[in-house]
Design goal:
alpha/beta; Oxidized Rhodanese, domain 1; transferase activity; five-stranded parallel sheet; 12 strands; 277 residues; globular
Length: 277
């Protein structure tokens, strides 16, 4: 049976006393840990994007947030208190649009069965009076026993994307906001612009005016029209550094699609390897 990829605040509250529940706060930013310590959902443990969910080296080789080695990630899951039977719920402070969705993708790619992202993230849960806490929290360490030995969800690399950019059978989807896609502004990477032939479907279009995911039916309709009958293996999603793109993959999973390819290196890698000015 397919596990829903999204959980609502009221649903989380109903299972909050479940012994195998593991809640994780994956907010980002320069003061993320300090903000977590000031206020987070009760029982939530902090996960650091740069430390737990990426192995950062040279952005020219893998982008700003390349995936860590698979074995390291499996050990990280154990240190966080996750085992294969854990019911994992993830949130961030950006409606799941940032590291929350990245952690979800990584767990799914590691073969974990029970993992969902909290609809609306921290802000919406707080508006619904979900219990909050402060300070640091942790779960007892486990040994995560994985049945697989490498990432299981579809990925592509920079050479694959270069070929796809020259092949009209492929669709390269840039989920960054339109101003960055158009090259009008670039607040993070060295060069503004987009990968040749890439089309823009901003991740924010997955959300309604309240910062909640649109219904699976609406998302399915919008993406079906956008994909134009392409097979998922000929669709590539990317963003700036392979984090926010996972928000759109989460939306696709929620809407019932087979997951297409993720290009983790994204614009941060591409723009450092090709002359795009």
């Amino acid at each position: 049976m397919k596990t829903n990829s999204i959980i609502n605040t009221n649903e989380l509250y109903q299972i909050s006393n479940q012994s195998n529940l593991r809640i994780f706060d994956v907010r980002t930013g320069p003061n993320a840990k300090e903000e977590y310590q000031k206020k987070h959902l009760k029982n939530a443990v902090f996960v650091d994007l740069n430390h737990h969910l990426a192995e950062i080296d040279d952005p020219k080789d893998g982008g700003r947030h390349p995936l860590p080695k698979f074995g390291y990630f499996i050990k990280t899951l154990g240190r966080l208190g996750i085992d294969k039977d854990s019911d994992v719920v993830i949130y961030d402070d950006k409606n799941g649009a940032n590291a929350g969705a990245r952690f979800w993708w990584m767990l799914k790619a590691a073969g974990h069965k029970k993992v969902r992202v909290l609809n609306g993230g921290l802000q919406f849960a707080e508006s619904q009076d979900y219990p909050l806490a402060s300070g640091d929290e942790s779960y007892p360490e486990t040994e995560y026993i994985s049945e697989v030995h490498d990432w299981q969800l579809p990925q592509v690399w920079i050479d694959d994307v270069k070929g796809a950019a020259e092949n009209p059978e492929y669709l390269i989807v840039d989920v960054r906001e339109s101003q960055r896609y158009k090259g009008i502004t670039e607040p993070i990477d060295l060069v503004a612009g987009h990968i040749p032939s890439a089309e823009n479907f901003p991740f924010s279009d997955n959300l309604d005016e309240n910062g909640l995911f649109k219904s699976p039916e609406i998302l399915n309709e919008k993406y079906t029209e956008f994909f134009k009958n392409r097979d998922s293996n000929k669709i590539i999603f990317h963003c700036g550094s392979g984090v926010t793109a996972c928000h759109s993959l989460l939306a696709l999973d929620y809407a019932g699609f087979e997951l297409p390819n993720l290009y983790v290196g994204s614009w941060s890698e591409w723009s450092r390897n090709f002359d795009v000015r």
